[in-house]
Specification:
Length: 454
Amino acid sequence: MSLVTVQLGQCGNQIGGQLFSTLLEDAYAKAPTISKSENESYVEMVKERFFHQPPSEKDDKPLNARAVMVDMEPKVIAQTMQDAKKGGKWCYPKRQQFCQKRGSGNNWAHGFCIHGPKAEEAVMDMVQKEAEKCDKMSGFLTFMSLAGGTGSGVGAYITQCLRDAFPHSFILNQVVWPYGTGEVIVQNYNAVLTLSHLYQSSDALLVLENDQIHKICSQLMNIKNISFRDINRVIAHKLASVLQPTRPEAMSSHDSDLYTNHLGDLLTTLVPHPEYKLLTLKNIPQMSEKSLAYSTFTWNGLLKHLRQMLIANAAMEEGIDWQVKVTGNSRHGQYGISHNKSLANVLMLRGQDVHSADTSAFKDPSIYSSWIPSHSACSVWAQQRPFNLYEKSASLLSNSQSPLAPLNTVVGKAWNMFASRAYVHQYLRYGLTEEDFVDSFAALEQVVKSYSDI
């Protein structure tokens, strides 16, 4: 089943471009641990899910990404298209780009109230065309930032349009959380308004935090001068690790046509109630190619670290708090340290001897909320084929209390600004009202309360 992507704003377009390259790099890599026929099936599944062959083109022509590109300024779209074409393996479809001459000025209201409605007809025509190219469509994946004006404001508006036009399709919004130190002075307003609107239209929001990705680049990848390209590579690696084809743990590797982890499989597993839509993603291992050449991994070691990353709410394997423990049904482990409670987890294992991995620790009922049936709390999907140069790797897509701290911080900072009406006039001039702000605060405070009560 195919997935249509919508790339919104500078951040969304750059992440989308990097993701498509990562998907094909992985698909075309050598795979000595599986048979030739299994590998061919995997590659075809990747192509069908994310790309299509333009009609009347020869097989050696670049694949077209299943993507619609949206930005209010043309520069980033042009650069992203050029980078894709330069690689020679894939490119963006023609006339599936929408851009104007003037951006949204980091103002959510400008994007949502002005640019969004103006772009709606043209963008939705492009989305419809892309959807019609799919034999079977599993849903929509959007890429966007929370901090700016176009990605957040236009992104929230277009997501609303997607829900209206495709009421029965799955929609996953991948959102990039802004740096805590601040990229834009009104980023907390933009984040609050975006999250509250997406919560109404989307099936789930996959949250990736810039601060955490930056630490991964610095401490695990050993990158000295970190650029947005480096950050986007890490994000693309994370996303590809859960979007590439795999199958349920219990399924035979001979069932090569029965790949799963379509968007619907992921979202129905991870979102047991519409009040809980915030997802996070953890990967292990993550390291530079130089370090990888001298490293070996065991499933026991990888999964022990990943489980501790989950319960201690750590973004990476370095610096995990090993004092956090899960004991019985208590909300607190030893030493009085509260562990990160989950509603649902999807564990994806890729690589050699994958079926020998013991995943029982992730099925411990104490990790999960008491109202979640133990048999459905954790799903394990496995793939014998190594992923992106890693002999063995594990990814954990999680619906847990992880986003609570950053969400609380953003709502608190935005409320402090709103209490003194700082910069509010800049939003009111484009048609937003103070009641819209209040409604957004109320919606997110309810989300915070729901996750706190898990």
